[in-house]
């Protein structure tokens, strides 16, 4: 039996949480009815908040990105004023998420499921640019940003191809990457490609 929809914000949150689970399991082609049942709301109630499946999937992708951004900012040490503080928050938040074995798998499944929905690729492109601008303002050398961010992202999904995560290795890698953020020099004398450049720092980045 569907729950009564008295709190719009709570209903929206319930639908997004249910959609995350269902889309990760069944793909972006899952029906609105299936998502509504999983959320315990009526189909009409769901459509009151999201006018179509594509609109819901787009909101779901945006919510996933915003939740991660909130985790990163929450993981930044308020007392840390050294260069690289945001990248350290990124490393901490990412490795904290890995501790929940289902999170990386769900994230990968979600991304694969929603990437072809209209608007999602553009949303992810803008999010990538936002992080590049944030990190450009973080004060570290570009080489360090690239290596540390990509290594962190890779650690998040490595367990999917290795039959699970080795937690002692992850703990060591986490501390290793964090330590790398406290130096600002380049890793190697490798010239940046002429046809690629790091984004300029946005005036909106704090």
UniProtKB/TrEMBL annotation:
Provide a Gene Ontology MF annotation, just one: transcription cis-regulatory region binding
Q: Which UniProt keywords apply?
A: DNA-binding, Transcription, Transcription regulation
SUPFAM superfamilies linked to this entry = Homeodomain-like
Q: Cross-referenced InterPro entries, in alphabetical order?
A: Homeodomain-like_sf (IPR009057), HTH-type_TetR-like_transc_reg (IPR050109), HTH_TetR (IPR001647), TetR_CgmR_C (IPR041479)
- Which Pfam families does the record match to this protein? TetR_C_28, TetR_N
For this protein, the DNA-binding region equals 31-50
Domain of life per record = Bacteria
Query: Can you give the residue ranges of the HTH tetR-type domain?
Result: 9-68
Alphabetized PANTHER family for the sequence: HTH-TYPE TRANSCRIPTIONAL REGULATOR BETI, HTH-TYPE TRANSCRIPTIONAL REGULATOR RUTR
Q: What is this protein called?
A: TetR/AcrR family transcriptional regulator
The protein's organism comes out as Kineosporia babensis
């Amino acid at each position: 039996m569907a729950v009564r929809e008295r709190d719009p914000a709570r209903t929206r949150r319930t639908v997004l949480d249910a959609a995350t689970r269902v889309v990760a399991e069944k793909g972006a082609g899952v029906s609105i009815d299936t998502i509504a049942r999983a959320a315990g709301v009526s189909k009409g109630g769901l459509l009151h908040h999201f006018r179509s499946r594509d609109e819901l999937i787009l909101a779901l992708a945006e919510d996933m990105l915003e939740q991660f951004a909130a985790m990163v900012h929450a993981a930044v040490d308020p007392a840390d004023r050294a260069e690289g503080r945001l990248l350290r928050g990124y490393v901490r938040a990412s490795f904290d998420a890995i501790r929940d074995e289902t999170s990386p798998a769900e994230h990968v499944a979600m991304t694969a499921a929603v990437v072809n929905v209209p608007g999602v690729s553009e949303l992810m492109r803008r999010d990538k640019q936002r992080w590049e601008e944030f990190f450009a303002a973080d004060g570290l050398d570009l080489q360090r940003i690239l290596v540390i961010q990509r290594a962190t992202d890779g650690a998040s999904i490595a367990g999917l191809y290795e039959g699970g995560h080795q937690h002692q290795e992850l703990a060591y890698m986490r501390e290793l990457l964090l330590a790398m953020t406290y130096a600002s020099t380049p890793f190697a004398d490798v010239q940046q490609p002429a046809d690629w450049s790091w984004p300029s720092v946005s005036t909106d980045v704090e």
